[in-house]
C-alpha cells in the first residue's frame, strides 16, 4: 500500500528516450525496449511527459486531442504494451494530465472561436477588454506580454496563463469539468497508475486575486480525487504546483486531494547550498515546510524538462543564482536557468553525487530526470527548453548514440556533440560496464535507499554541526534511524556533531559496507569528511 511514499520516480520524454521505428523520433516501441534498463536501475515508477496529438509548440503540453496518441509515438496499442510491460517489471506508470489549457488547434477551441454564440464559446475564458484579472502574473515572461490574446475574428480577448497558443479552459463551465473527468477515465482504463497533473494552480480566475490556488480550484481537484478513488481505487495524483510550501500544503487537503506533490522551493536551495558551502537555505525552507497529512508525500527533484525554475526564491537570490549558474545569457529562460545537472555542477562528479545524495536522503520521493543519471549535458543553442530535451545517449555509437538508427538529419533534435558531454564520453552502455561510473553510483544509491524504510518515510531532524558546511540530519521511522552527512564545502572538515541522543549507537555505513565508524558517544561525534563527501549511516 501507498507504494508512492518511498518510490523512486523517473521522468522521461517519449520523443527523446528511444526510437523504435527508425524515424529519428522517440516512441513507445523504443521505450518498450528500454524498460529493462529502468528496472535494472531500480526505478519504481515512470512519468511519461505528453504524447497526445499536438502541434508541439509547447512540446506536447499544447494538446489537440486529449484521448489519443500522436502517431509519431505509435498507437494506443503501443501505449498499452508499454503499460503492461512496465507492470510486468514492477514499474508503475504516470502520464500527464493537462487540465488548465488546450492548444489553440484543439477542436474545442476552434469551435469556440468560430463565433460568439457557438455552444463551445464558454469552454474558454473571453473578455471584451484585456484589463481583467490584472493581478495575475505572467509565467512565460520571455515570450508573452499579457495573459490575454486578441481574437480578431470575434473581437474579444481570450485568457491564457502560458503561451498565447494555449487558451485556458473555463472551469466555471460544468461541461468542461465533466469533459476533463472523461479524459481521466479514458487513460485510467489503460491501467495506468495515475497522473502528474500539470499546472493545477491556475484552473480558475477571480477578480481581485492573483488567480492562483483559489478555493474553487481545490474544490474541483477534490472532485477529481473522489472520481478516481470511486472508480479506480489505488491510482494516484501527483501535483505540479510551483508555489511556496504553505501554498502547496492545501493541495494535499485532508488527505483527500493529491497523494503526492512536487516540492519546488527546496530545489534551487540545494544548488545554493552546494555553491555557498552553507546549509542555511536548505534548513530554512524545510523549517518553513508544513507537515502534510498521513499517506501523502512530497516529490523532490534536481532537474526536470523545464528550466530550473527560480520562481520560489527572492529577487536577490534569483540574481545570485543567475550570476552563479547562468554566466552566458543564453542559459537564462523566463525566471530560470535552462541547463542540466552535470553542467550546472561543472561536471564535477563529487558535486553531482552530493546533490544526488541530498535528493535520496531528504524527505520526499525522488524523481530522476532522464539522462541525469549518466551526467548528460545540454545544448543552449537550441531554443526554449529544448536544450535539456536532447536524445538519450545509450551508446557511444556514432551518429545515433543508440537512440535511433535514422539519419541524424531526421532526428527531432541533435544529439549532444561536444567533447565533454557527447556520446563517446557520456553513454549508458559504457557506464553500465564501469562499476565506478556515475550511473552505477546512482544505482547503488537507489539500492541502498531501498534497504531502509527510514529514508523513504522517516521523520526529519537536523543535527547541527558548528560548521555550516556540514548538512547532517537523521531520518527515523519505526525504530530505525539513518544519519545522512554531507560536506557542502570544497575543503575537508572534521565534524563535531551533537549526537548524544544516540550515544551507544554503532553506525553502519549503508553505502560502503566495508567502512567502519566509531560508536556514538556523549561527546560531539568526530568524523573527517572530504570535500563534497556524503555518508549514510544507520544508527544501530
Ligand atoms: C508545466 C510544464 C511545462 C509546460 C507548462 C504549460 O509547467 O511542466 O513544460 O510548458 O506546464 O503546460
Describe, in plain words, how this protein is organized in 3D.
The protein is an alpha/beta fold. The chain contains 16 helices and 21 strands. The strands form five sheets. Strands 1-2-3-7-8-9-10-14 form an eight-stranded parallel beta barrel. A five-stranded antiparallel beta sheet has the order 15-16-17-21-19. The chain is globular, with a radius of gyration of 23 Å. The two termini are 27 Å apart. Alpha-D-glucopyranose binds next to loops.
Number of strands: 21
Main beta sheet strand tally, sense and closure: 8 strands, parallel, barrel
Structural class: alpha/beta
Shape: globular
Mean pLDDT: 98
Say which molecules are bound, naming each kind only once: alpha-D-glucopyranose
Question: Taking Cα atoms only, what radius of gyration do you get, to the nearest Å?
Answer: 23 Å
Level of helix content? 25-40%
What is the element layout, followed by pairings?
Elements: E1 9-12, H1 14-17, H2 28-33, H3 35-41, E2 45-48, H4 76-88, E3 92-98, H5 107-112, E4 126-127, E5 148-151, E6 156-159, H6 174-188, E7 194-198, H7 215-231, E8 236-239, H8 245-248, E9 260-262, H9 266-276, H10 280-287, E10 297-301, E11 308-309, H11 315-325, E12 332-333, E13 336-337, H12 341-344, H13 349-361, E14 365-369, H14 428-433, H15 438-449, H16 453-457, E15 459-463, E16 470-477, E17 480-487, E18 493-494, E19 507-509, E20 528-529, E21 534-539
Parallel strand pairs: 1-2, 1-14, 2-3, 3-7, 7-8, 8-9, 9-10, 10-14
Antiparallel strand pairs: 4-6, 5-6, 11-13, 12-13, 15-16, 16-17, 17-21, 18-20, 19-21
This protein binds alpha-D-glucopyranose.
